[in-house]
Amino acid sequence: MSKIADKKKGLGKIFIYSFLGIASLLSLFPFYWMFVMASRPSAAYNSIPPTLTPGRLIVDNFQKVLNQIDFFQAMWNTFIICTVVTLVVLLISSLAGFAFAKFKFPGKNILFLAILLTMVIPPQLGLIPQYYLIANAGLLDTLTGVSILFFLNPLGIFLMRQYVSDAIPDELIEAAKLDGCSNFRIYRSIVLPIILPAFATLGIIVFTAVWGEFLWQFTVLRDPAKYTIQVALASLSNTHNIDFGMILSGVFWATVPLIIIFLFFNRLFISSITEGSVK
């Protein structure tokens, strides 16, 4: 019986690993295809059967991108916006999550519900009033005007509230208060070290979301020197003869920083996801 059970267990592992391997290949294929198209002439984009092997034009296509737009300035602008927004969101979300998880105050549940309800509102509905507010504040065509809209993140507040509720026992907070710690000292000395894995998860989510955002950036920015990478890449297609190899070359190199950031914070990201199962 033990041999049969071991055989079934081995077959189960083979099936799981095979499924995960196929799923991983399917997930990586779009990025690989983008790399292939970035190294091929524009005609390869519509070729039948599709081209699946890299070409030799990866440098030439990227040189075309550099001739059309200020690629590195756009990347720098995007990096500044994403970094500032991520840091501000982490600070606000962790403070708000700590307050919602461990403090009692009037209207707490109603306020938390109102924050969650904003997640179901399509961002396009707020585009006109948001543009009006930014214009009246004199922040049009500025990186500040692009960034400030993303400072309050309902998803971040929700994630932090759930993580703090599960990871930090009430007894630890009460013990710190008995020792004379202020609320901010508790947040700084106790809460922050414990929620670092959640910081990594939320940071990756926010950074990648802001990096890939286009509509608001396209609405606010007009000066090419202040373009983000998404707006700059969109300007490449403002011609009758679209060079897909050039465009996908720009998209490929604009994606590389996100992969590096994910790999850098990968361990903390996985730790945050698996912590509940470990407990």
From TrEMBL:
Family, similarity comment: Belongs to the binding-protein-dependent transport system permease family.
What is the protein's name according to its record?
Sugar transporter permease
Q: What organism is the protein native to?
A: Lederbergia lenta
- InterPro entries recorded: MetI-like, MetI-like_sf
Q: Which GO terms describe its cellular component?
A: plasma membrane
Q: Which UniProt keywords apply?
A: Cell membrane, Membrane, Sugar transport, Transmembrane, Transmembrane helix, Transport
* Pfam families (alphabetical): BPD_transp_1
Where do the TM regions start and end? 14-35, 74-98, 110-127, 133-152, 190-211, 244-265
What membrane topology was assigned to this protein in its record? Multi-pass membrane protein
* Keyword Nucleotide-binding included in the entry's annotation: no
**Which positions fall inside the ABC transmembrane type-1 domain?**
75-265
Where is it localised?
A: Cell membrane
From the UniProt record, give one GO term of the biological process aspect: transmembrane transport
User: What CDD domains is this protein classified in?
Assistant: TM_PBP2
